[in-house]
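Hey,
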Amino acid sequence: MLIPRQAVPPLAVETLAHGRYELAADGAANFSLVVFYRGLHCPICAKYLVELGRLVPEFESRGVGVIAVSCDGRERAAEMARKIAAPGLRLGYQLSLAGARAWGLYVSTSRGTTSIGVEEPALFAEPGVFLVGPDGTLYYGAVQTMPFARPHFDELLAAIDFAVAKGYPARGEYTGPV
């Protein structure tokens, strides 16, 4: 389990159009927003990424670097990029399943062909959304076992505005006895 105010695992992936991405070198002033998505087979992911792509300028104006990452290979990631048509959104690909687990993501097995006619990979990571501070520590995290009911990006923008304006600390950091 990732703990707020503690270092997150390393993240280094190739992106389709923005070179190699390394979280440790992101250089965002306030946060790095890391969105893990299920992959090309997921129609809900495509819709979610369209919304994220639309809001990239809003996040960037707040000093937040944005990347969306999946376990898909380059070819499937490129097909997703064509589908969502969001050239400003960095799309990272080929996250290892071990890397997904290090981030606390759930891993699912294939159920075959999805409702949109795309075969699920044998194993793939379920969604997760994380805000990482410039110091590499976890500020916010949400992981899911299912593709639906994800955090809304407009609400996340409002939360970032509040957190930055008020110097609001990451919460959930206590690991002692209960």
